[in-house]
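Margin note from the TA: students keep mixing up input and output lines. Inputs are the sequences; the output is the structure of the whole complex. Example:
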Amino acid sequence: MTLQKTSAWVALGVSSLLAGAAFAESHGAALSGDLKIISDMSNPAPRAVMEGMVADFQEMHPDLNIDLTIVDREAWKTQIRNALGANPPDVVNWYAANRMLPYVNAGLFADVSDLWAEPEFEALASTKDAMTIDGAQWGVPYTYYQWGVYYRKDIYEELGLSEPATWEEEKANCQAILDSGRKCYTIGTKFLWTAGGWFDYLNSRTNGYDFHMELARGEIPWTDERVRQTFANWRELIDMGAFIDDHQTYSWQEAVPFMVNGEAAAYLMGNFSVAAFRDGGLTDDQLDFYQFPKIAEDVDYAEDAPTDTFHIASGAQNMEAAKAFLRFVVSEENQTKINAGDALGQLPVNANSEIGEDKFLQEGFDMLSNNASGGIMQFFDRDFPAEMASVGMEGLQEFMVFPDNLDDILARLEDARARIYE
Amino acid sequence: MTYATVPDTHPPAPRGWYKRNQIAITPFLFLAPAILFFAVYVIIPIGQSFWISLHEWDGLGEAEWVGTANYERLLGIGEQNMDRKFETSFWNNIKWLILYLLAIPAGLFIALFLNQTVRGIRVYKSLFFFPFVISQVVVGLVFSWFYLPREGLLNALIGVFGFGPVNILGDPSMATYGIIAAGLWPQTAYCMILYLTGLNAVDPEQVEAARLDGAKGWRMLWYVILPQLKPATFIAFVVTIIGALRSFDLISVMTNGGPFGSTRVLSFYMFEESLSEFGFRMGYGAAIAVILFFIMLAFIVYFLWSMYQDEKGAR
């Protein structure tokens, strides 16, 4: 046993020496030993992608013994703590920005700055910030997706409306939709985060990306007049009756039928919702997408584009293989393959990869690369620290149902801010 | 004269230590596995919760000693206000405690109703018992569909009588009551079964004697039947109180603590603070758990005390 282990280590040592030279032409460095991966890509399509990736990687490294465990995505959010603590795997799935902060601070994620220093990683520059904490990088992104307003094109055409570019047009469109007996927006806030999306857009369009991130870092009090302005803009829509009733009772999926049945005309959502709309029977002729309109004239567009990531546990047993897997995940061909319309249906992070044929992917990529000069946000629950996000989203949900409680809500959030960022 | 001493070839075997103390030790030997497991899985974790509640800990890194700061924040000792989420959870727990007790009279009523010799009564009994058999998660799901604001059966029903649609689980003032109502469904079945077994043990001669004395109806129930059901009532009380304080799964399934945290109870709040998706406050969660433990302890001490009194009386 000991002997075997030693020889494996020697083999690894040799292979990593060779790897330096061999990497440039191929990923062909011989890896051996075990590679333990825990993934949260549990929905059918992502699961197939993950299994495909492992199969491809296995083919490249036949001597490597890969052990892939797929955990339910929601369950993983609470399991990751235990998984990283005792007997850690080598590679895990997680999210960028503040969502990885507790694990970085606790020393449970390995520093992968050396990977990011490799020339191939220049193609990932757009997400480097989201992976950086304390000047080092702690993982690699494998996919991201745009957020935006998905709407019923046929309803807009019926009412003679066009995609709004300004806040005034947005409200005018909404009034026309309300007059036709429909709701403007569907939303399901039972699990809170959907309201975070609205806040991200309203706040960054009202006060700008920098202000939004300062708020996320706890540098601005929630009782600030500018934050109130964001809520005042939101309230205009609420008072019009723009959102569906009883949204606090529905999950985001349960709110989809309102749009499919034509009872609501639009949904502010991430691109993953397109699959749900299509499953519900909407065709691409009925469904379209527009960028959240400008509110303040002088504020640049900032967009929500959450990044999903792979990380190496600091207690990984097979660091060499884990790094090779991360290199493989972000490689140009693999990114093209896993993000294609028939696979994940999202956007590749590698700038050299090709975007899937899908019209929403094309539009989204165009929006993020050419029309998001304000900046890229990760999303409310990833930009704000975990505790602030949970208190905050609860307040946002309450505001959407009882906008008159705003003063009380803001005082509560401010109280939480004072405690959390101390 | 010499006496030949015949060596005693059969000395009485010296009795081993265990043999000598067998009667005293055996009960402890039988108890040992249970005591060991009880210590490892109950007593020690309780102690650990106390210990953790005196720290600030994210569950990952080093724990930092903060003394009673967590309790001060929860209860609002000093200059700060009481934690509002804690306050809501506490009062919701009280609501659960009180309203959950309705399961006892309801269970008794159904048990009396079903305690007849009618053809096929076993089928009815099993039907009434059925809700207790299905998982709380399923009960929660069924009731959340029942309560759905647009397509739910409840709104269809009250619509017939001309009442407008209500969103029970979306309204912070009604949601807790809606969940308790769902919880009462299986709990009533549980109490009913306890009373049915209790009714089997009712002495028919006493009933006969009471009848000769002219007792019937409510008087019969109150003065003759109920006193004989006292053991069943006691058990029903115990399981209902403990069930109310443990309420967690229905809340998690039906509202996830919402809308805006209005349906939280202490156990759910504890879970949220320390173990959920955004929960990184192990110390704070442990402090909530400790407070819930003391509330439970008050009831448990009362139960043990009254059981002890009964035993003493029986001796």
